[in-house]
Amino acid sequence: MLPFHKAVEGDFSAVNQLIIDQLHSDVDLVENIGHYLVEAGGKRLRPLLVLLTANALGYPNTGNKHLDLAAIIEFIHTATLLHDDVVDISSMRRGRLTANAKWGNAPSVLVGDFLYSRAFQMMVAIGNMDIMQILSDATNTISEGEVQQLVNAKDPSVSEANYLDVIYKKTGALFEAACETGAILSGANDTQRNALKRYGYHIGLAFQLVDDALDYEGNAAALGKNVGDDLAEGKPTLPLIYAMREGTSEQAEIIANAIRNGGIDQLESIVNIVRETGALQYTTDSAHEQADLAIAQLDHLPENPFTKAMIELAKFSIGRNY
């Protein structure tokens, strides 16, 4: 358990149990895949943000719906991962076989649908229309981001602005929703609600920027996935976009061809190029800027162990190697 988890350790354990309880199904395969995903662990930052936000604003004195909300966020996230791995033909996540590699594409997609629908069942039970609207909008935005990323695949002309739009939709939107819905549940005022929404937005971008940098400088054991996966899928992420923009015409063409063709035949050469052009540094600097913007939003919240943990979470998002 990471230090910022300890601030809400009891709630976090309760959410983990609630997730297991809510995976109940009369269909054994649903439970088998669901439990496989839960046992894989993961950082669970999105539900953690719900818990930290709610505790920072004093919600736990009035009920336990923050636990339900945290589980809902995790179910939505896990459903997107199941679908992502099928679309990306991924075989490894969190150091283990993906569900699609273990059971096949059809069960993975269908269990992803089950998790989405279970999340919305739980959402109705919370009974807050603002929360339902935000999470419905976020789910729709994530789907748009997935389609946009699919369109961008193997296209070396994708701009930095387009890339940032995609990572907001795919990653930032759910971080943003986790914080804003936690704020609503806790009766936050407009200033606090907006500050927490912006905190989630910036943390989400920082997290994805670091992920995309790690694809060219991490190692498979630490990452829990294969290094070079983005390149293999022809994804034009920021390290490649910047390297093509700042490198020589020859370097740009090597990267462009690799994006067009997919595969990792040129991985070593491209890793050298993104380092030589300063693309990795640019990407990590961008992540640091986002983390700083996130931390600045916490000035609008009371100072307590939970907001301090949110600062530590922001620092972790840019200092990690997995």
From TrEMBL:
InterPro entries per the UniProt record, alphabetical: Isoprenoid_synthase_dom_sf (IPR008949), Polyprenyl_synt (IPR000092), Polyprenyl_synt_CS (IPR033749)
Biological process according to GO: isoprenoid biosynthetic process
Top-rank lineage group of the source organism: Bacteria
Cited Pfam families: polyprenyl_synt
SUPFAM superfamilies: Terpenoid synthases (SSF48576)
Catalytic reaction list: 5 isopentenyl diphosphate + (2E,6E)-farnesyl diphosphate = all-trans-octaprenyl diphosphate + 5 diphosphate
Enzyme class: transferase
EC number: 2.5.1.90
Family of the protein in this entry: Belongs to the FPP/GGPP synthase family.
Protein name: Octaprenyl diphosphate synthase
Taxonomic source organism: Pseudomaricurvus hydrocarbonicus
Taxonomic lineage: Bacteria, Pseudomonadati, Pseudomonadota, Gammaproteobacteria, Cellvibrionales
